[in-house]
Amino acid sequence: MMVIPVSLCKSAAKKIVEELSTVLTNKYNLYSSFKHDFIKLKNDMSAISAVLLDAEKKQENNHLVEDWLMKLRDALHDAEDLLDDINVEFLRQKVEAELKIVTWVRNFCILSDMDDRIKKIIVRINEVANMISSLHLRELDQYQVNASNRQRVMNSISYMRCCREVVGREEDEKKVIERLLEKSDSFVVVPIVGIGGLGKTALVNLIFDDDRIKDGFDLRIWVDVSDDWSIERIWEKKVVRGFDRSSDKNVSGVDFFSCLNDYVRGKKFLLVLDDVWNCNRVEWLDMKKMLLGNCAKGSRIVATTRYKSTASIMGENKNENSLYQLGALVDGDCRYLFEKWAFAEGERVQHPNLVKIGQEIVMKCGGVPLAIRSVGGLLSGTKEESYWMSVKNSDTWSMSHLPEKEDGSTYLRALDLSNIGLTHFPNSIGNMKHLRYLNLNGNNELRILPDSICSLHFLQTLKLSGCRRISTFPKNFSHLVSLRYLVITSPNILEKQLGTLTSLRSLTIECRNLVSLTEVIQNLTSLRTLRIHNCAKLNSLPSSLKNCTALENLEVVNCPMIESLDVCMQGLSSLRSLTIKGLSKLRTLPIKPECYASSLQYLFVIDCICLMILPDCVRTLSSLMRLHIRYCPNLFDLPCGFGQLTSLQVLQIDGCPVLSTRCRRIVGEDWEKIAHVHEIYVDNVRI
What we know:
Elements: H1 6-25, H2 35-50, H3 52-58, H4 63-99, H5 104-130, H6 142-163, H7 170-181, E1 189-193, H8 200-208, H9 211-216, E2 219-226, H10 231-237, E3 239-244, H11 253-258, H12 260-264, E4 269-276, H13 281-293, E5 300-305, H14 308-314, E6 324-325, H15 331-342, H16 352-363, H17 369-379, H18 385-392, H19 395-399, E7 414-416, E8 437-439, E9 461-464, E10 485-489, H20 495-498, E11 506-510, H21 518-521, E12 529-533, E13 553-557, E14 577-581, E15 602-606, E16 626-630, E17 650-654, H22 657-662, H23 671-674, E18 679-682, E19 685-686
Parallel strand pairs: 1-5, 1-6, 2-4, 4-5, 7-8, 8-9, 9-10, 10-11, 11-12, 12-13, 13-14, 14-15, 15-16, 16-17, 17-18
Antiparallel strand pairs: 2-3, 18-19
Helix pairs in contact: 1-2, 1-4, 2-5, 4-5, 7-8, 15-16, 15-17, 16-18
């Protein structure tokens, strides 16, 4: 007997209900005639979802229930594809509306086909729902099914997360705490959104136990919610931590729920709802009203969730900025976290080859701390280079870079055609309307991308590294409205076309004939990561880089014509990691204080053979934690203000003969400037 994984059915059912809500509220009203059918479909889906736990228990002993689950699974898969197609059509209509394109005949044909598919799906789901009573399936109390085990696990997880060191979330912690302590009521509810594994719970643990929060609230309550949304269950069973500043007593159980109004009356409280999967809007509004009706001014609620739809319900409608989107870790934090898990103290300097391999592995983890810790822990048990290489080359880790909107669907969302010698890419790629991830790396004979690729309105990641013969993009490249990550290697890049991709978050460019980046950069205001590699003719970075106010990670590697970074570095107020490598004409880092963002935490200066000056204004880098200076033989000393870098934790100097001598422990002329640094490595030896 085949056991159907009910968790996938639950996930698919939840997604379908969310997508139906989007369809019903979409401004293009393409399917307004189906409004009542969609509402009935939502009701059927809710009825089906309610009995899935019972079906899961019965399927092993009842082949009729097993058949029912198989029919449900197939219907849900087809419904997911249909809703994806509907969303693709919405995106296409949006693009055409913005470009003032009218295609009435095509729209009529597409809508006619959609109408037929919608009718069939509605009938199939309804048939499945109508079988519930005949199979005697009933709604189970999920809490009763596994309450004791899950509560024990959830409590353990919460406390373990409290104890784990959190890396790279200092700025996020600061911003959320500022919202929570703000005197106005702009952020009564702060939903924190991000994909699984980003560290939402870990971040909120930091905030929950911060002294400013302890002093700022009379009462702090922590609740693990998961997929079990119910006011009664939340308060009766799931209060993990509750602290009253005046009495330090625990809060839990039925007594708490029955006297909740009295308990919070007149008090300023912070409530954390951790890992909210779904949220009943009516119950949420009732709960919020009950909690906030009698409390003191300044009370706050923080909710962590993977789903923007849930966050939208819980957030403040009057303030769209109340939602806090947690992003991936920047590269420097990723490397630090990986090395902390993969190497014991002192091992890193003994295995320089593994360090390099590890950096490539980290790139595949997509900035997700859980993935980085997992692979780091896996590799910590062996220092065999062949094993590390096998992990680096594994397709599994490539797939971990899948975009954030995926939730486990078994349908094709990713296509990896890297290094297979493609010379021609078929037009049929445009038929893969659900595609999110396309990897064409290493196909150095590929010359043209088909126009049909511009129909992939869901495409979020496009990798073209090593595709050196591609000299132009399709005419409608700007139609890739969802594109977030682009990696491209080409002798010629059409700057104007790249500049239209305003949704880009990460851009990696390798272009030997690129002379200017002005038109590429000036409109890419959403960029978080910019990597400029091997651009042999690029002689400067544009002043328009200052428009990239969200930029957190900047790498300029092997661009030998660049002589100065002064202009481009101004205004990058969010910059956290800067890598400068292979700039053979660079003689000094920027000499103006305004070029140095106080947010910068990681600075890597490598292979800059003419670099002679590290200016005194680097002392303004108040957040700098790691500084690596490698193979800069003409850099002779450190600036006088170096001792003011009080946040600096790690300093590494390699291949700088004179500077290495001056930094010798105690006797070196620059020793007093660096003595405060916790970890100092000179020529791979800790001193």
